[in-house]
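Reproducibility note. Readers wishing to regenerate the assembly model reported in the main text can use the exact inputs given here. Chain order matters: entities are listed in the order in which they were concatenated for prediction.
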Amino acid sequence: DTGVSQDPRHKITKRGQNVTFRCDPISEHNRLYWYRQTLGQGPEFLTYFQNEAQLEKSRLLSDRFSAERPKGSFSTLEIQRTEQGDSAMYLCASMASIHQETQYFGPGTRLLVL
Amino acid sequence: DAKTTQPPSMDCAEGRAANLPCNHSTISGNEYVYWYRQIHSQGPQYIIHGLKNNETNEMASLIITEDRKSSTLILPHATLRDTAVYYCIVRAVNNAGNMLTFGGGTRLMVKP
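Running the prediction on these inputs yields the following structure tokens for the assembly.
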């Protein structure tokens, strides 16, 4: 257990529905990252926050995706109008500061869109 | 960040050393070599990282060649619980975002 928690661990939804995932980072870690991992592939970067500011978004993050970290602690990732191609593992990671070099990952949320 | 090349899979006998190679021939002087592993259905787990010198911690040793174009992760006494996908990642020191770029990794199977 790295101390990063994610909820839910599994989510099954129908195409077109909205889903929201939550990530609770290690306490006082000011960097928070979201990655997506499809079957058989390595994780791919989606976006990251420095405190409450979202500093970078990957081109993988379409307009249907939105991430927030309102108080610089937990973060949410919402997918609107889900598509079957959104089926993946969504991973969250946190890091202490820009001078800390290690990202600690949560267990992930596995999404299946039917 | 430089690209890495790893064998897709390897086997290792339980109790023996597992040596996982990684090629990063285009690495530049300001890029770290990181190793993470991912056990089935879990998030990636940090193992070790280095810049130029060899590194050792409680989990593994990292051997980086003198020209830095390749490295080897060594698990000295592999156990069944070390069965996982191992990712070698190169990340620039001045990568302000610190985001990690994962490749396909090496699937290590530790056999009894």
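We highlight two features of this model. The interface with chain A takes residues 32, 41-46, 49, 85, 87, 96-105 of chain B (CB under 8 Å). The beta strands of chain B are 9-13, 18-23, 31-38, 45-50, 55-56, 61-64, 70-75, 84-92, 106-111.
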